[in-house]
Amino acid sequence: MRMAGKKADEKGLTPRKARNAVAVAKIVVPAVAPVLAPIAVKAAGALREAYDRFQARKLGVPVEALSEYTGRGAGLLARIAGVSDALAELRKSARATAEDGEFVTEAQATLEQLTAAVRAAERMPAGRRKAAHQAVAAELERLESQVLHRLGI
Questions:
Q1: CA nearest 104: which of 94, 119, 89?
Q2: 5's torsion region: left (phi>0), alpha (psi -120 to 50) or beta?
Q3: Comparing C-alpha atoms, which of 3, 124, 108 is closest to residue 100?
Q4: Who contacts 98 (Cβ-Cβ below 8 Å, separation ≥6)?
Q5: Which residues lie closer than 8 Å to 127 by C-beta, 6 or more apart?
Q6: Among 109, 113, 105, which residue's Cα sits nearest to residue 136?
Q7: What does residue 14 show for φ and ψ, rounded to 5 degrees?
Q8: DSSP assignment string, 91-135
Q9: What is the CB neighbour count within 10 angstroms for residue 87?
Q10: Going residue by residue through the chain (153 aa), what tens digit of pLDDT does each one get?
Q11: Which residue, 143, 139, 135, 138, is CA-closest to 84?
Q12: What is the DSSP string of 32-51?
């Protein structure tokens, strides 16, 4: 039999259920917070470390160097650093010719300009930034292929 004024099948969140939940939370949260806080902090640290490793792997840099590659151009900056390292290897190579030395000098100057372009693009509107990044990526592609060719790869 149904009682007048009461709903026997109340579902969902009602004001009464909300008040009860708040009252229970006021009692339970202070009791478990000291226990859960260190666990939450540890979990947050582990998540951040995993995310940093993921980002470093995605950019192809060591985790320790991740802070050097920030912003929307981080991937390009990491590629520029990689090409710069390859140029240093080319310069040290026993097979390096005088022409290779000139190429390395010119390429290093180009990389400095590309780095400046990527950093300047960070403050550009989205459309211009994307166009600048595409131009830098195309130039990097050209340099990378030349370096690989000169290294005999």
A1: 89
A2: left
A3: 108
A4: none
A5: none
A6: 113
A7: -115, 165
A8: HH-TT--HHHHHHHHHHHHHHHHHHHHHHHHTTS-HHHHHHHHHH
A9: 21
A10: 455 555 545 678 888 999 999 998 888 888 888 888 899 889 999 999 999 999 999 988 899 988 888 889 999 999 999 999 999 988 888 887 888 889 999 999 999 999 999 999 999 999 999 999 999 999 999 999 999 888 888
A11: 143
A12: HHHHHHHHHHHHHHHHHHHH
Burial-class residue 9 by CB neighbours within 10 Å (0-12, 13-18, 19+).
exposed
Question: Are 55 and 78 contacting, i.e. CB atoms less than 8 angstroms apart?
Answer: no
What type of residue is 94?
A
Q: Tokens 């990689």 appear where?
A: 82
Which of the 8 DSSP states describes residue 152?
T
